[in-house]
Fold this sequence. Notes:
Blueprint: E1 18-20, H1 35-48, E2 55-59, E3 65-68
Parallel strand pairs: 1-2
Antiparallel strand pairs: 2-3
Amino acid sequence: MSRPTWxxxxxxxxARVRTMxxxxxxxxxxxxxxxxxxxxxxxxxxxxxxxxxxxxxxCDGCEKYHLTSKP
Length: 71
């Protein structure tokens, strides 16, 4: 799989993922198949928006990954 151009050269190191339980219906949230994909999207969004802090979490409801701005 090729890396998106916005992630080229990024040295992000290992990401910390905390498991969270989301609402039974998390269909309104964007879900990512992999931690890698979610982390890359988070980095891209944070690069576009100064001061934005996002983190990746694994959802117990859908077993995929979401982004949150909550600490």
